[in-house]
Structures are given as C-alpha cells and as structure tokens.
Specification:
The protein is α+β, with helices and mostly antiparallel strands. Strand 6 and strand 7 (about 120) form a beta hairpin. The protein has helices at about 25-45, 135-150, 165-175, 180-190, 195-205, 210-220; strands spanning about 5, 50-55, 65-75, 85-90, 100-105, 115, 120, 130-135, 155-160, 190-195. Helix 3 runs antiparallel to helix 4.
C-alpha cells in the first residue's frame, strides 16, 4: 500500500467539533458550484483536472523511481484564479467508509472539507494531498492509468522532475548564504512534460492502448 503525505493544515484553529452540520441547502449549494465549474470547463474544452507526478532527481527509466502523485483542478476557475489543489477522501483509509472520492475546491468553504461522494465532513489534516510511490516505470504507468480512470478520463497529465536535488541546494543556501542562487538554479533545472487530454483522446481514438501510451510518456 502506498504511504500518504498529508500536506494541508486546514481548520486547525477551527476544530471539527465546532463545524456546522451541513443541511440540504448547504449541500445543494456545494453541488451547484461544482456543476457550474463543470459547465465552464466543458464550454472551454479544457480538462477538469491535472494529474501531477513529481519525481525525485534520481528518476531512472530502468529500476525503481520515487515520486508523488497529486491532483489539481484546472485553472479555469469561476473567479479567474489559478490551479487549485484537490484531495482524496480518506474514508477508506481511515476505515470510516469505503470512499476514495475526490474532494474539489468547491467543497471547501466552511473551514473544513466535505467529500461530495460520501458527504462526510473531514478535518484538513485527514484528507490526502499526495500519495508517495517507489516503483518501476511499468508500475508507474499502471498507477497513472488508475488515477486517470478515477477522474473519469478527464485530466491532463503533468510529469516533473528536477535535475538537481532541491534539498541539497536548500542546505547549501543555508550554509553559504548564496542569496537564493543555488536554489533558484535547481528549481529552474526542473524538467516538465505534459500529456494534455486532447492528445490522449486523439491517441486512443486512433486505437492506441492507453497503458502503453502512459508508459511511453513516462519513459520519454
């Protein structure tokens, strides 16, 4: 089982015990916000989500590579902002229910996060922001396919990895006070590859096997 990294700290100063009980009206409002965003994205022909894989600088084609997977909502927000983080419902992992649904930004408006699938109110530190894996390339392709299907085949794929170790660069900054030069250089060296939804649809419409396409993308 992959380990989880719980990145956000929503609601620490606002305990779950003090959260309001969401009634039918509040749940309906959340659902309407989600539908409005879905409609906007559909009209603009954009993917609803972005799957981001961030590999360590030690990524290899043959052998095991470590990295994290995170989910982001498209930047085409109703308020014109950038990408926003989405989270996995922790219901199944915490044995509260069998839910592994996606919690979007539209479900975060009460100081806590409401899963639209199981409608459970979660603390910020309970939801799953990233999932860590250490796998060979073929298994990474299977992981990517599983998340892509989980998002209803509606996501762009982003693959990132730095050529230099960011932790080492950060340590050098602290030790020698290079005024951000080494850390900026390490961040600038980060490579990024994108497999947009439009290309995925085009490839699979032409008969390409999706798992093989993801494998080729990750090993390019």
């Amino acid at each position: 089982m992959p380990s989880t990294v719980r990145e956000v700290k929503w609601g620490q100063d606002n305990p779950i015990e003090n959260a309001p009980v969401l009634g039918a009206e509040e749940l309906h409002a959340l659902d309407e916000r989600k539908k409005a965003l879905d409609k906007l994205l559909s009209q603009e022909g954009k993917a609803k989500y972005k799957i981001e894989i961030l590999f360590k600088h030690t990524r290899v084609v043959h052998g095991l590579s470590a990295g994290t997977v995170s989910i982001w909502e498209s930047g085409a927000k109703l308020h014109g902002g950038g990408d926003t983080k989405a989270y996995w419902c922790p219901g199944k992992e915490l044995k509260r229910n069998d839910c592994t649904g996606i919690i979007p930004d539209a479900s975060n408006g009460y100081g806590h996060l409401v899963c639209p699938k199981c409608q459970v109110l979660w603390k910020g530190e309970e939801v799953i922001g990233e999932i860590f894996y250490r796998l060979p390339a073929r298994k990474w392709a299977e992981v990517l396919l599983r998340h892509y299907v989980h998002l209803d085949h509606n996501a762009d794929i982003y693959c990132k990895y730095p050529k230099e170790d960011l932790r080492i660069a950060s340590s050098l900054e602290q030790a020698k006070q290079h005024m951000g030069e080494k850390l900026s250089k390490a961040r600038a060296s980060r490579q990024m590859y994108i497999y947009p939804l439009a290309h995925i649809i085009k490839d699979t419409s032409a008969g390409a096997d999706l798992l093989e396409r993801f494998h080729a993308f990750l090993t390019a």
